[in-house]
Amino acid sequence: MASLWKFPVIYVCENNQYNEYTHYSETTAGDISARAKAFGILTETVDGQDIRAVFDTAQRLVARARQGEGPAFILCNTYRFFGHHVGDIQRAYYRSKEEEEHWKAECDPLKLLAGWLTEQGMADTSTFEQIEQKVRAEVEAGEQFALNAPFPDPGEVDQDVYA
C-alpha cells in the first residue's frame, strides 16, 4: 500500500548480523533489500556504523518522501555488540571473541564519529571525555534511583496495565 499510494514513509532495517544465536546469512535466503525492491520501494544500503552516512541517507530520503515521491527502505548494516538477551553471555559458540573485539575496536559508531570530528577540528578529545563523564554520572544516578525506589504496593498490580 505504501508503494501504491506513495506514502511518505521510511522503513529502516537494522541488520545487526545475527538472529538470536545464528548469523543471518545462515537463515536468510536472498538479498534483504530485494524484499522492499519487489514492492517497487526505493532501497538504499548504508554502513550502519557510520552515523554521518546514516544521517545523510535518511535526510535525503525524508526530503524525497516529503516531496510526494513515495516510500523508501534503508538497510543499515550494523553489529550487535552484546548478546541477544541478558542471559546471552557465552557467545563463543556462535561468534568469536576476535570478531567482537574487531567490531568494538574498529567499528564503534561513536568512536568513528569522534575521530572524524577531531580530524576536522570540530572537537577535541577532552570534549568527548567530558561527555562520557556526564553520561556515566547520569546513568549511575538513574541506577541508584531505581535501586533505592520502593516497590509498588501489591494492590497496584492491575492498575495502568491496559489502555
Description of the molecule:
- The longest helix has 24 residues, at 125-148.
- This protein has helices at 32-37, 51-66, 97-106, 109-119, 125-148; strands spanning 10-15, 42-47, 72-77.
- With 163 residues, the protein is an alpha/beta fold.
- The protein has two domains: 1-82 and 91-96, no CATH class; 108-148.
- It has a three-stranded parallel sheet with strand order 1-3-2.
- The mean pLDDT is 93.
Which helices and strands occur, and which strands form pairs?
Blueprint: E1 10-15, H1 32-37, E2 42-47, H2 51-66, E3 72-77, H3 97-106, H4 109-119, H5 125-148
Parallel strand pairs: 1-3, 2-3
Number of structural units classed as domains? 2
What would you call the shape? extended
With helices defined by DSSP (H or I, 4 residues minimum), what is the helix count?
5
Please estimate the helix content. 40-55%
Radius of gyration: 21 Å
Biggest beta-sheet profile = 3 strands, parallel
**Stretches where pLDDT falls below 50 for ≥5 residues?**
none
Q: Termini separation (Å)? A: 28 Å
Structural class: alpha/beta
**SSE string, helix = H, strand = E?**
EHEHEHHH
Mean model confidence by pLDDT:
93
Strand content: 5-15%
Strands in their spatial order, largest beta sheet? 1-3-2
Total E-strand runs: 3
Brief description of this entry?
The protein has 163 residues and is an alpha/beta fold. Helix content is 41%, strand content 11%.
